[in-house]
Amino acid sequence: xxxxxxxASAHLWQVLGAPGGSQDAFLWLxxxxxxxMLTVSAGACALIIxxxxxxxxxxxxxxxxxxxxxxxLGEHFSRSHxxxxxxxxxxxxxxxxxxxxxxxxxxxxRVLRGTQAEQLRQLVTDQGxxxxxxxxxKSGTRGARMRALRVLSYLETSESLRLIHEHLDAKQPxxxxxxxxxxxxxxxTMFLGHIVASYSDVFPDQVKGLAELLSGFGAKIxxxxxxxxxxxxxxxxxxxxxxxxxxxxxxxxxxxLCALMNxxxxxxxxxxxxxxxxxxxxxxxxxxxxxxxxxxPKVRLRAAKAACENRESGFVGELYALARxxxxxxxxxxxxxxxxxxDAGRQFVESCAKREPMAADVSLEMRAxxxxxxxx
Length: 376
What we know:
By secondary structure, the chain is mostly helical. The chain contains 20 helices and no strands. The protein has helices spanning 5-15, 23-82, 98-111, 114-126, 129-136, 142-153, 158-166, 173-185, 192-202, 207-215, 222-231, 235-247, 257-260, 266-275, 287-292, 297-309, 316-322, 328-339, 343-352, 357-373. The longest helix is centred in the first third of the chain and has 60 residues, at 23-82.
């Protein structure tokens, strides 16, 4: 039978040379330490509970203040719609936490239009809310800072524009991204170079994200994008510039897209190929034909998709070859592009459907699409 922990401790006490009468003192020491530990644990638990109760109370208070501010703002615009000359409209609003204020204002800025949207922008300035929101961009949680920047993106003051621009150099990547999107919303094309540099610094491999960001400026930066494509030595920036041009295609580009089809980057070649289908370009070659024969699966897939979307009928031989491509989606878009060339293409896909499951799937899909469009 194994000794109990207490007898074992007493034995250890004796081995260490403690007098026998000290066993009771040792046991009292163990009991005292245990009680101290229990007291400390209970105190810690009580402190956590008190802090949680206090936090819940503060959150409830914040929510009440936010609801009051939201109701007052809603009432303000309800009265302004029914009685625009009412002098009561100049009344003060209940205060709330600046992050909650940003949340409420952002909702209204997104949904209000016309005169009411203009009134709200003026109200933000007149009530001093702009200064509070501007200060909140420099501290607090990442989400609160991003929300404040979004609010500032709807304003029209030079100070808010300057502050947004400063945040292109923020340490947090998504704060930078929010600032860049805010500048696009403000149509601040003068900061185009800084926007590209800031985005590329924190998202160095994101072609699609940069292209979507730049496309928000619309067709007004076509010349800037072409100049950027000509001057940059970064493949991601070059590819993103081409992709942005595709999203807002000009009638003609001055870029030599055939030369770009020899670029080392798959992303650049894929974008150049797709751009050639929506914009006229100089050069005697055909980027789409080159793309259909490219060694990179990504480029072949993009070329087949572009041929399908633009119903190109001059590349039947290349598309027939691509219908045997080992890449699943390359075959899919090749069969769709062949179907789109006309009756002969449909007959080819139907004949392949007997032995090629992909062709059978495309045939069913395209027939259903033609029926919905009323072509059959």
